[in-house]
Write a structure and sequence with these properties.
two-stranded antiparallel sheet; 67% strand; globular
Length: 192
């Protein structure tokens, strides 16, 4: 049972380049273990200006691979703008995954005190979602946010493939200001 431990860390700040875009990186540390029957990321820590991502996970059995991983982050969403995500605010995001590479089951959470996505501002947002890669169904267990001076809650499931699963989404909006909503969405509604 031979193991090979690898520890890596940056000694100075650098850049991550992807699709022609750059993201400044303050620090990267990684500890991993290679075994005869698998690979484990004991810890990975990526630090960016105003953001941080931590992850750990394991790949068991190279012959019939099975993954088990988790990641958590605190993200300054403005840093994602160069990658096509027009957003601002800070968000805490966690993601867990288990399964084979072709049939992962993912679960995640998002929370933010204030978030703006594509020009739509929200307050106190929380979400819990699950995704089954095999069935290609996204389940929104809970979505709650303050929007248009009111609250919005949603739950349901969305078939992201063509598997014939019924998609159903329940959305409840309470105490929202219709004028704010119409203005933000670009609607021309004559209101008294």
């Amino acid at each position: 049972s031979r193991e090979q431990t690898v520890r890596y860390g940056t000694h100075q700040a650098g850049l991550i380049r992807w699709n022609g875009e750059e993201l400044p990186l303050d620090r990267l540390t990684l500890e991993s273990v290679l075994r005869h029957d698998g690979f484990e990321v004991v810890s990975m820590d990526l630090a960016f200006p105003n953001s941080r991502i931590q992850a750990r996970g394991r790949l068991n059995n190279f012959d019939a691979p099975r993954l088990n991983f988790s990641a958590s982050s605190e993200v300054d969403c403005e840093q994602l703008a160069p990658f096509g995500m027009p957003a601002s605010g800070k968000a805490k995001i966690s993601l867990d995954g288990v399964g084979t590479p072709g049939a992962l089951k993912l679960s995640g959470t998002v929370s933010s005190d204030r978030l703006t996505v594509a020009g739509l501002r929200s307050e106190a947002t929380t979400a819990r979602v699950e995704y089954d890669q095999e069935s290609q169904v996204l389940r929104i267990k809970e979505l709650s946010t303050g929007v248009f001076s009111g609250t919005m809650r949603a739950s349901g499931q969305i078939d992201t493939g063509n598997r014939g699963t019924d998609s159903a989404l329940l959305v409840e909006v309470a105490h929202a200001d219709v004028r704010q909503a119409a203005s933000a969405l670009g609607w021309k509604i004559p209101l008294p």
